[in-house]
Design a protein that fits this description.
The chain is α+β, with helices and mostly antiparallel strands and about 500 residues long. Helix content is about 35%, strand content about 20%. The structure holds ligand MV4.
Length: about 500
């Protein structure tokens, strides 16, 4: 087993990984940027190394600096967390070249799943169902031909995509030309690859994903599903295990689990990974893409299966065998996770970083809190403002819902705005309680509740949108953005921008 591991990440996930390393008797090395000098992951690690200024491209995304830090501190392996370099095949390869173990899949598997069309081809070859679509990038004429043969609505997607960037819904042929141009240009800007492919649009789908874990000796199991349909702007905010749909149709877990294993195995996959599916109104499921990393929402799987996914990742990376078989995996009770953000849900989810002046955490039966904040800490504006993930476990979904409401009432954060109150409203919602979830849930929720007391301040939203222009809030952390955008944020002044 490794004696020392470097964590190439920050925030709650760095803290999460450090905790398991400590339980395993493995020393931890943190890396940090200027903005993170006082952050919790730096305090908690056994050792820490400064890797650059606040801008991610100059610190957490600098492969050379991360590898230098690992060598300097004598780390044998690197845990990439999620976001940043976690799905960067070049980083995985560079670790190996430097004699370090990348705690994740092979560079090849990452590359294969990074192209959404290559992933589709892999899934098809493995016999996993996919939405009708093209298996390669298309020209405008080919897209038009697809629309004519398959019918509208269709969805244009970026080959190098993910996170909804470069994605356009097209309802009729007359809209195709401008949508195609816009999608290609957005994909080019976001991924330096303008290639677009086409799928039939699935209306009001659920997003259900399967957690996989496989070792380097050819053994792979699935750990069941997570229901992640409650999203806004392609960012998950609430996840649960089991899926309320799969509670009603338990045979779906095994079917989707086996399809996920086949698709991942076809890519020579090992370590932890997640296969995303869309599930339509008729309960047909379709392979969407594979995430080749540990995911933000992994705690709900851990609560229901009793496993430690980070421990499994480390053991597998060290060459160990999976310590259990598929028939040993059991799912018990129900878990829900809420992503607690420094943001204002009633003003278009505008980020609200700042200094925490007061902090009381929820405690007691069935509570798990994965956070990175402490009283007096200033939430940096440079990164994704995820403060903590609050997860609860209970015997049933109804009890987990009541427990989450209780935990959110105990949670008291002062000095910044958070989405804690917003979650309480969702948990009281009739449709949520009925388990009627789909990816348009939050939009419909706002319509049902007419929720924003005051209409969003459009001038403020526009100013912030300009400031955050090249900032992305995918799974992960914010991508780097030009220093000018940071200055625009500061110049605008938060008090004016965010009433
Ligand atoms: C879809 C879809 C409907 N039909 N594909 C969104 C992000 C990207 N990874 C794939 N996404 C979707 N692909 C077809 N053919 C709807 C979505 C989608 C979505 C998927 C998962 C979770 C939330 C979503 C929100 C809007 C759209």
């Amino acid at each position: 087993m490794f004696r020392k591991v470097l964590i190439a990440n920050r925030g709650e996930i760095a803290v999460r990984v450090i905790r398991t390393l400590r339980e395993m008797g493995i020393a931890s090395v943190a890396v940090y940027s200027d903005a993170d000098r006082t952050s919790l992951h730096v305090r908690m690690a056994d050792e820490a190394e400064h890797v650059g200024p606040s801008l991610s491209t100059e610190s957490y995304l600098r492969i050379d600096r991360i590898l230098d830090a690992a060598k300097k501190h004598g780390a044998e392996a690197i845990h990439p967390g999620y976001g940043f370099l976690s799905e960067n095949a070049d980083f995985a390869a560079a670790c190996q070249d430097a004699g370090l173990v990348f705690i994740g899949p092979s560079a090849n598997s990452i590359r294969m799943m990074g192209s959404k069309t290559a992933a589709r081809q892999t899934a098809i070859a493995a016999g996993a169902p996919v939405v009708p679509g093209t298996d390669h990038g298309v020209t405008f004429d080919e897209a038009r031909q697809f629309g004519r043969t398959q019918g509208y609505p269709i969805l244009l997607k970026a080959v190098a995509g993910g996170g909804g960037k470069g994605m356009r819904r097209v309802d009729r042929e007359s809209e195709l030309e401008s949508a195609f141009r816009n999608a290609a240009s957005e994909a080019g800007r976001s991924f330096r690859n303008p290639d677009i492919y086409v799928e039939k649009l699935v209306e009001r789908p659920r997003h259900i994903e399967i957690q996989l874990v496989g070792d380097q000796h050819g053994h792979m199991v699935h750990l069941g599903e997570r229901e992640c349909s409650i999203q806004r702007r392609h960012q998950k905010v609430m996840e649960e295990c089991p899926s309320p749909l799969i509670v009603l149709h338990p045979e779906m877990r095994q079917e989707m689990g086996e399809a996920a294993i086949r698709a991942a195995s076809a890519a020579g996959y090992y370590n932890a990974g997640t296969v995303e599916f869309l599930v339509d109104q008729d309960r047909r499921y379709y392979f969407l893409e594979m995430n080749t990393r540990l995911q933000v929402e992994h705690p709900v799987t851990e609560l229901v299966t009793g496993l430690d996914l980070v421990r499994l990742q480390v053991e597998i990376a060290a060459g160990g065998r999976l310590p259990f078989a598929q028939e040993d995996v059991a799912w018990r009770g129900s878990a829900i996770e809420c992503r607690i953000y420094a943001e204002d849900p009633y003003n278009n989810f505008l980020p609200y970083p700042g200094k925490l002046t007061r902090l009381t955490r929820p405690l007691g039966p069935g509570i798990r809190l994965d956070g990175c904040v402490y009283d007096g800490w200033t939430v940096p504006m440079e990164y994704d403002p995820l403060l903590a993930k609050l997860a609860v476990w209970a015997a049933t979904r109804a009890e987990a819902t009541e427990r989450m409401i209780r935990a959110l009432r105990e949670y008291d954060v002062g000095g910044i705005r958070t989405n804690i109150g917003f979650f309480r409203q969702i948990l009281e919602d009739r449709e949520f309680r009925a388990g009627h979830l789909h990816t348009g849930f939050i939009d419909e929720f706002f319509q049902r509740h007419n929720a924003p007391e005051a209409p969003p301040d459009l001038a403020a939203v526009a100013a912030l949108a300009a400031a955050l222009h090249s900032m992305s809030r995918t799974e992960t952390a914010w991508e780097a953005r030009p220093a000018a955008a940071s200055r625009a944020w500061l110049d605008a002044g938060r008090s004016e921008l965010l009433r």
